[in-house]
Every structure is written in C-alpha cells, then in structure tokens.
Amino acid sequence: MPKHIALKGDNDLYLSARWIQGYQYLQFASSDHGDPTVGNEVFITKDGSIRIKNNYFGKFWRRSPNWIWADSDDTTTDNLDTLFSPVKVGDNVIALRNLGNANFCKRLTIEGKPEPLA
Questions:
Q1: Which domains does the chain have, with CATH numbers?
Q2: Strand partners, 30
Q3: How far apart are CA 112 and CA 52, in angstroms?
Q4: Of 19, 48, 52, 108, which is most buried with the most CB atoms under 10 A?
C-alpha cells in the first residue's frame, strides 16, 4: 500500500475533506486529485491493518457510529474504529473494511448528507 493516497469513488470524484454541519466529513466531492483536501497518509500497523490520516484536517479516520470521520487524534492502534483492512479488488482498486464494525466503507447519501463516506 502506498504511503500517500487519494481515493476515487465510483462517481469519478475524489474523497475530500469537507465541513458538513460543523463536522469533519470525508466526501466524494472533488474532481481534482491535486486538491489539497484529497490527500491521505497511510500508516501500516504490526498486524497489517492500516490507519489513515487525512492531510487537510490532520486527523485520523474514525468510524462513529457508522460514518467515517476525519477527527481522531488517537495515535495508538487500540481503537478498532480507527483501523481498516485494505482488500485488493483489481488493478489500482481497493476496498476498505473498518475493523470496528467489519463493514466495507462506501459512498452513502442519507440524513441530508450528500455522499460522505460510511
């Protein structure tokens, strides 16, 4: 897994840091891979799972309750909600499974929030 990533969704937009209703969401909203909100840094743990830190917010990804936020300052690997398992789906294509609930991450529109990561 590369150290630095930008993730592109099935809507051809990049996952980007966005403030929505005062919260730090990750939303498939940018068409530019050079947008400063789309960069993320990957940290591989001893067991092979990963933690992802959004460069724009400077925070780690965290699941709560089923949204993925970029709001965690936790630097340990103790919180399963901040750990993900990458699954190779194809060439340059991965799926991410959150270890806190064992669900795959996906683009979701619900509760009036357009296409954040869940």
A1: 4-98 (2.80.10.50)
A2: 14
A3: 26
A4: 52
